[in-house]
Amino acid sequence: MSGKILMLAWMNEESLAITLATKKATYWSRSRNELWVKGSTSGHFQFIKDVWLDCDGDALVLSVEQIGSACHTGELSCFHQNLLEISE
């Protein structure tokens, strides 16, 4: 695990419960109104190593073993565009 930020996604209570039970990252799709297991169609699963809760209890950070890329573009991380570099 590199500590790199891979992506940002939404969870609800059900997706969190499934994630904790299966140790596979499961998210809530706000656009499709459905649960989705990261990697279920691409094979690029995220296996949970740790789950960190913030001080307000309203945000999580998942430490994962990423299989393949996290981003749908094929990049390892969805955060692959550095605005400081782009604006120069």
From TrEMBL:
UniProt record, GO biological process: L-histidine biosynthetic process
InterPro entries: PRib_AMP_CycHydrolase_dom (IPR002496), PRib_AMP_CycHydrolase_sf (IPR038019)
Record-annotated Phosphoribosyl-AMP cyclohydrolase domain positions: 7-80
Reaction(s) catalysed by this chain's protein: 1-(5-phospho-beta-D-ribosyl)-5'-AMP + H2O = 1-(5-phospho-beta-D-ribosyl)-5-[(5-phospho-beta-D-ribosylamino)methylideneamino]imidazole-4-carboxamide
Entry-linked Gene3D superfamilies: Phosphoribosyl-AMP cyclohydrolase (3.10.20.810)
Pathway: Amino-acid biosynthesis; L-histidine biosynthesis; L-histidine from 5-phospho-alpha-D-ribose 1-diphosphate: step 3/9
Signal peptide feature range: none
Protein's name in the database: phosphoribosyl-AMP cyclohydrolase
